[in-house]
Amino acid sequence: MFNFEIVAGETVRQVLHDKRADVLGIVSSAYRAHEAGDSVNPDSYFLRFPEKPDSRIIALPAFLGADVQLAGIKWIASFPGNTRRGNPRASAVLLLNDYETGYPIACLEAANISAARTAASAAVAAAALRPDGFAGTRIAVVGGGVIARNICDYLNVAGCAPDAYLVHDLDEASGQALADHVRTTQNRPATFTADLDEALRADTVVFATTALEPYVSTPFKPGQLVLNISLRDLAPEVILGADNIFDDVEHCLKAQTSPHLAEQLSGSREFVTGTLAGVLNGEVTPSADRPVIFSPFGLGVLDLAVGAFVLGEARKDGSTIEVPNFFGETRRW
Fold first, then answer.
1. Tell me: the pLDDT tens digits for 223-258?
2. In angstroms, rounded to a whole number, what is the distance separating the alpha carbons of residues 282 and 276?
3. Are 246 and 297 in contact (CB under 8 A)?
């Protein structure tokens, strides 16, 4: 009852690398459970630093029922300055708590979990929102970091197979590296473009940047699908000119995201089309004569679902690290 385990990053990475198809199903199921009310997902809490406005550490507490029955919290740091040193922007841990007793049972390295659930979310949305498939289309990825690489990997596993990829990044080396990754892993044409406007004309546009405020004011066209993963790239007018699908409406309309700015500008939520779970359940169908934008705030329940899966797989192969006597007292008296 009082065991405590650690799952190190290399173990997490290996489990997720080999089980991407499973993760897609886990994320879809978690969305449906959340939509059905079988979860508790409070607001995220942002720790910000006055002298480092681009950096933050975010706490995402949650409980997920269904077949998970765990509570927990992800503590994830985003420090964009790390990339100038060649290090990933994000680092994270995930703490899982037993629902019956509340005791913490495991701590997992979670940057990989966070990237996987974010990428799987994008891929689930892409497959659901372009049901006719991706043959004959191009996908453009704006931002060439770790999240972007994971999104490309998960899009491939989800069967979202375009004719070609375009990659745009302010840092050409990062953009070229992502294009090389796609060519190598998918045997698919992928090229870097320094022209943002060219990327914005693609059939599907993925935003995976560290932008703090909108810089894209060009409206999208009917038939275009936009995966607004980084949430702050699009001017509110762009949001208002599209059908909008969210992971969770209340979460997305906070923290000066592009949808939040759209709500402030318009004074209403009439631009909200529905949730991804609603699309998956067949309850929401975006219009064919408007562009479609998917904006996921990123739900803690997804981290719990993927983290619980990783913990289970690590236990199966004996790769968890048990910490003896982690709890100082195990008896009340």
1. 999 999 999 999 999 999 999 999 999 999 998 999
2. 10
3. yes
